[in-house]
């Protein structure tokens, strides 16, 4: 399936792309566009939008959730580790919630460096997967083996 979000990804968009690829849609194709193009791409290409104006999963929904949390609630509601990561992502993404979890400030700081170590948004998604895989493992009392796709650089 195609997924669309705003370009120049950081905290929530990177985490949400990781969530989608690892737990919802392993073959996800991500499209990164200007914020005002997300709704158009959603309509014209049948993509599912996230973390953008008029997206299926907006930056902040009516319940105060970031798109990561909304997707967890829809697809992985029984996974307490993903719910905890969702709180971390919300805290990192929304400045007023930075103290929500002890990990939020660190995720926010690390995310500011993504454009400095990646050529584009697609490379950011690939490189940042390691960060979220590690966070998932650290928070999980029974770590699972992550199934890596053949395109995943961590699988090399």
Task: Kindly describe this structure.
This protein has helices spanning 11-24, 38-45, 67-75, 80-93, 104-112, 114-117, 121-139; strands spanning 2-6, 29-33, 48-49. Strand 1, helix 1 and strand 2 form a beta-alpha-beta unit. It has one domain (2-141). Helix 1 runs antiparallel to helix 4, helix 3 packs antiparallel against helix 4 (80-93) and helix 4 (80-93) packs across helix 5. Strands 2-1-3 form a 3-stranded parallel β-sheet, with helices on one face. The protein is mainly α and 156 residues long. It has 7 helices and 3 strands. It starts with a strand and ends in a 17-residue tail after the last helix.
Task: Summarize the topology.
Layout: E1 2-6, H1 11-24, E2 29-33, H2 38-45, E3 48-49, H3 67-75, H4 80-93, H5 104-112, H6 114-117, H7 121-139
Parallel strand pairs: 1-2, 1-3
Helix pairs in contact: 1-3, 1-4, 1-7, 3-4, 4-5
Strand-pairing-aware structural class? mainly alpha
**Overall 3D shape:** globular
Number of strands: 3
What percent of the residues sit in helical stretches (DSSP H or I)?
Answer: 40-55%
Instruction: Please give the radius of gyration in angstroms.
Output: 14 Å
How many domains, in number, for the residues? 1
Strand content: 5-15%
Low-confidence stretches: none
Provide the succession of SSEs.
EHEHEHHHHH
Mean pLDDT: 93
User: Helix segment count?
Assistant: 7
The largest sheet is: 3 strands, parallel
* Spatial gap, N to C terminus: 24 Å
Could you state the oligomeric state of the chains shown?
A: single chain
Order of strands, widest sheet: 2-1-3
């Amino acid at each position: 399936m195609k997924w669309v979000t705003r370009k120049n990804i950081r905290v929530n968009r990177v985490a949400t792309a990781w969530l989608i690829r690892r737990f919802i849609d392993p073959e996800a194709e991500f499209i990164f566009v200007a914020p005002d193009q997300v709704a158009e791409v959603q309509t014209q290409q049948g993509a599912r939008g996230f973390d953008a104006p008029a997206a299926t999963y907006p930056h902040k929904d009516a319940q105060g959730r970031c798109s990561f949390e909304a997707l967890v609630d829809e697809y992985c509601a029984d996974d307490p580790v993903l719910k905890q990561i969702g709180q971390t992502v919300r805290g990192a993404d929304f400045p007023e919630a930075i103290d929500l979890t002890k990990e939020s400030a660190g995720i926010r700081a690390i995310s500011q460096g993504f454009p400095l170590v990646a050529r584009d948004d697609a490379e950011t998604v690939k490189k940042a997967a390691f960060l979220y895989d590690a966070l998932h493992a650290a928070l999980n009392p029974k770590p699972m083996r992550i199934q890596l796709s053949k395109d995943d650089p961590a699988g090399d």
